[in-house]
Specification:
17 helices, alpha+beta, disordered N terminus, four-stranded antiparallel beta sheet, about 30% helix, twelve-stranded mixed beta sheet, single chain, Dipeptide-binding Protein, domain 1, about 575 residues, Dipeptide-binding Protein, domain 3
Length: about 575
């Protein structure tokens, strides 16, 4: 098994390197025969983040009055998945939101559509000091969509707003992994003045890093580093993201938002590179009904389909519009490690060893996903963790041994466990597969709990689960993007995993300049988190599955980040 997997992973690594050298969580899954399924489905309403300090007005989404459009020009329609939590970069944490914000907002850097590497955005150039711990950025002389100049002071305001504990941003932990003094400010033990960012003048911005982080520039495209309009936020509070109030600096601006339906964007005439924008109307459809979206694509009502139903994969693969490629992303389940019975590491190991990843990807997901044992996908300079068994017969024997050591021989005495997942037929099918595996191999009963996207995120982040579905798309091309979220007390560490050794290794790696040494330290940390502590169960490395007719649309390319800047797309 190890030999077979190493060949497969080598092919994936080759594809990754080809993209990396040049420069979502939502996934479908197929059905599998299963015993009677116990599923709890809770109908929930979309939850909103807490109001920020600058206003007591909660963000609401009003029903838009859609006026008839005589001529929408070149129109590009995207199936964007679930209804976005918000359009405020400080309130979101999902792939659907990221796609929209890439159109509406631009940070210091932007994205090369072919490689997903960073390219100049709001900053036209930058340079680092000798040891790579300080960067100075030179901003373009450009404006917000309402004509107000954008300055380095806006960058300082935006990043401090993200970090401000009063903002309660779900992604504030991310810049804390980069900026000197950010963690102390965010956790309330430091001040804003202690954060290593400053405006040297109106068009020069400087940041101090916690160490010589070679991946720092690649991370700046992320929406947690977005630049937001202070003047609009101070005027409208949480309502600044409403279409009538919205101010942005991306290639597009917001025209309409119809809840549970669509978000409509039009070109931002004030954008510094407005001449490159060739789409007149951009629509993001809010629907996680994969079959409906697929049929709409076939009918020509959707131009870019971001997911394909598993039962349609065989026919979709025959079409020239089908685009599949390796992605820097991992699908996994996370354990709640603080509460019984899953505070028992042997029970966690029994569950992890019992899941046959090959059967999962061949019989359920069926899109060429690569079975995974570790959280970090293979990439340049970093090999994926090997499976600790020769085949799944051996794995099943080891699972039963771990179950005995946990005190539940043949599952006797083990309480019914719950698996949390968000609404999606694909996630449901994977959960049913896991449910059947644990029943057949370990005699453990599992109840499935389905919740809508917003409530699922809240419960997962708060640790309100026993086992939860999760997926992670790398925010930049480095192993650290998969490992830093499991640090003790991290905002994304819903399983409450805590290891002093792991924390020390990940933090130490951030101070190491030598790339080989740094990768070795990170690999040791991953080995501890997976092979010793079994904090999570990685299932597979993603393969991105999109559909778009590139004979009609240009400027869209596959890449390992699955990032597709909309400013580059044009109709041929």
């Amino acid at each position: 098994m190890k030999k077979t997997l190493s060949i497969t992973l080598s092919l994936l690594l080759l594809a990754t390197v080809l993209v990396s050298c040049g420069g979502k969580e939502e996934e479908t899954a197929a059905t599998t025969p299963a015993a009677t399924t116990t599923t709890t489905t809770e109908k929930t309403v979309e939850t909103k983040a807490e109001p920020k300090a600058e206003t007591k007005v909660e963000e609401t989404v009003a029903e838009a009055v859609v006026e008839p459009t005589m001529d929408e020009g070149v129109k590009f329609v995207i199936s964007n998945g679930a209804e976005p939590q918000s359009l405020d970069p400080a309130k979101v944490q999902g792939v659907p939101e990221h796609r929209i914000l890439m159109a509406l907002m631009e940070g210091l850097t932007s994205i090369d559509p072919m490689t997903a590497d960073p390219v100049p955005g709001l900053a036209e150039s930058w340079e680092a000091n000798e040891d790579g711990t300080q960067y100075t950025f030179h901003l373009r002389k450009t404006t917000w969509s309402d004509g107000v100049p954008i300055t380095a002071h806006d960058v300082v305001y935006s990043w401090l707003r993200e970090l401000d504990p009063a903002t309660a941003s779900p992604y504030a932990w991310f810049p804390c992994m980069f900026l000197e003094g950010a963690q102390a400010y965010n956790d309330g033990t430091g001040t804003a003045d202690g954060v290593g960012i400053r405006a040297l003048d109106d068009y020069t911005f400087q940041m101090d890093l916690i160490g010589p982080l070679p991946y720092a520039i690649g991370a700046l495209e992320h929406y947690s580093f977005a630049v937001v309009p202070k003047h609009a936020i101070e005027k409208y509070g949480d309502q600044w993201t409403q279409p009538e109030n919205f101010v942005g600096n991306g290639p597009f601006t917001l025209k309409e938002r119809i809840p549970q339906s669509k978000i409509v964007c039009v070109p931002n005439e004030m954008y510094w590179d407005a001449d490159s924008v060739k789409i007149d109307t951009l629509e993001f459809l809010s629907s996680d009904d994969e079959n409906t979206n697929y049929n709409m694509f076939l009918d020509g009502q959707i131009d870019w389909l971001t997911n394909v139903p598993t039962d349609k994969l065989s026919s979709a693969e025959m079409k020239s519009s089908f685009k599949a490629s390796p992605q820097l992303a991992t699908y996994y389940y996370v354990f709640q490690t603080e509460k019984a019975p899953l505070d028992n590491v042997n029970l966690r190991k029994a569950i992890a060893y019992a899941i046959n990843r090959e059967d999962l990807v061949e019989g359920v997901t069926k899109a060429g996903q690569i079975p995974a044992w570790g959280i970090v996908p293979p990439m340049a300079g970093y090999d994926a963790l090997e499976f600790p068994f020769e085949d799944y017969d051996e794995a099943e024997e080891m699972a039963r041994e771990f179950l005995n050591e946990a005190g539940y021989p043949n599952g006797v005495g083990c309480p019914t466990l719950t698996v949390l997942y968000n609404t999606s037929e694909g996630h449901k099918q994977i959960a049913e597969f896991v449910q059947q595996e644990l029943k057949d191999k370990l005699n453990i009963n599992v109840e499935l709990v389905n919740k809508e996207w917003g409530t699922y995120l809240t419960d997962r982040n708060n640790g309100d689960f026993e086992i939860s579905r999760a997926g992670w798309v790398g925010d930049y091309q480095d192993p650290n993007t998969f490992l830093d979220m499991f640090l003790t007390g991290g905002a994304m560490n819903g399983g409450r995993y805590s290891s002093d050794i792991y924390d020390t290794l990940v933090k130490e790696a951030a101070t190491i300049a030598d790339p080989t040494e740094r990768m070795g330290v990170l690999r040791t940390a991953e080995d501890i988190m997976i092979n010793e502590d079994q904090a999570i169960i990685p299932f597979y490395y993603y393969i991105t599955v999109n559909m778009i007719d590139t004979d009609v649309w240009g400027g869209w390319y596959t890449n390992t980040m699955d990032y597709h800047p909309l400013k580059t797309i044009y109709k041929k």
